[in-house]
Amino acid sequence: MSVVPVADVLQGRVAVDSEVTVRGWVRTRRDSKAGFSFLAVYDGSCFDPVQAVINNSLPNYNQEVLRLTTGCSVIVTGKVVASQGQGQSFEIQATSVEVTGWVEDPDTYPMAAKRHSIEYLREVAHLRPRTNLIGAVARVRHTLAQALHRFFNEQGFFWVSTPLITASDTEGAGEMFRVSTLDLENLPRNDQGKVDFDKDFFGKESFLTVSGQLNGETYACALSKIYTFGPTFRAENSNTSRHLAEFWMLEPEVAFANLNDVAGLAEAMLKYVFKAVLEERADDMQFFAERVDKDAIDRLQRFITADFAQVDYTDAVTILENCGKQFENPVYWAWISPLSTNVTWPKSTSKRRWW
């Protein structure tokens, strides 16, 4: 007898008639008049729970099994058999059920077996990973991260972990979160009356990183091909779906590469990770397609099968000019010096448009 994840049982990686133990949490309990109870037990290893069939002959059936509610922690031991019902191929005929954690008041337990709104889940952050939605998101994020590391390793890249606390403003175009141990109610001042950061922890101003790019570039000039992948922080107070104060960012850096090399790398990487998600997290993606975004699977499949179009900058401006649409902001052509953020307009015309 061995402890196995629920995913191994449901996906047929455990032999029929073998004795196994699964550990997890009760999602639902149904009782039959024929003297059986059916527990849906999940452990987060996959989207679906496994059904455990429990006979009323178990010693703790009346005292414990019939008291189980959503959220209780259990250890179920039994035989893997082909399921007689619909919805899954295998189930467990339980020979023992050990209750390791009770929900003291089921009537006030915040994670009832129903669909909850995102707004509600924010109020119960300690329990929301147990929901279908947040559990699926966590597994997909895991698969994305693992696929990214696999892809770059197969391409001969080295992963470089860059500092989260830095004195550098790598991007130079955004607000940064300050890191300080100074007493905000009694800030030290210098002779000019400004905050004396010489007294701070690092002896200078320090911030949360906005990018690992600068560190990555130095390593690329020694290791040829590297990538950074880690937390990034931006202090722009923009409350939209396209702005985050904290997120994970991937930044490859390649020596001796041109624009076509970089574009090809980006296309290959996206197709690789999307394919991994569709293959390894099919159950979670099916849930997203049914409950969150009906085009979630089709969109990723189109990414995988389609070629990425590459358009010259000037051609892109021309396409936008001739598309017949009125944009909120005018489309202009301009040249931006790589050494500055100043826009230089061509002398030949003042009407060239920049998008």
TrEMBL record:
Give the EC number.
Answer: 6.1.1.22
Q: Where is the Aminoacyl-transfer RNA synthetases class-II family profile domain?
A: 139-298
Q: Record's InterPro entries?
A: Aa-tRNA-synt_II (IPR004364), aa-tRNA-synth_II (IPR006195), aa-tRNA-synth_II/BPL/LPL (IPR045864), Asn-tRNA-ligase (IPR004522), NA-bd_OB-fold (IPR012340), NA-bd_OB_tRNA (IPR004365)
> Which UniProt keywords are listed?
Aminoacyl-tRNA synthetase, ATP-binding, Cytoplasm, Ligase, Nucleotide-binding, Protein biosynthesis
Pfam families the UniProt entry points to: tRNA-synt_2 (PF00152), tRNA_anti-codon (PF01336)
Tell me yes or no: is Oxidoreductase among this UniProt entry's keywords: no
Q: Which GO terms describe its biological process?
A: asparaginyl-tRNA aminoacylation
**Alphabetized GO MF terms:** asparagine-tRNA ligase activity; ATP binding; nucleic acid binding
According to the UniProt entry, the coiled-coil residues are none
Family assignment? Belongs to the class-II aminoacyl-tRNA synthetase family.
Q: What PANTHER family has UniProt attached to this entry?
A: ASPARAGINE--TRNA LIGASE, MITOCHONDRIAL-RELATED, ASPARTYL/LYSYL-TRNA SYNTHETASE
Write down what this protein is called. Answer: Asparagine--tRNA ligase
- The species is Klebsiella pneumoniae subsp. pneumoniae
Protein encoded by which gene: asnS_1
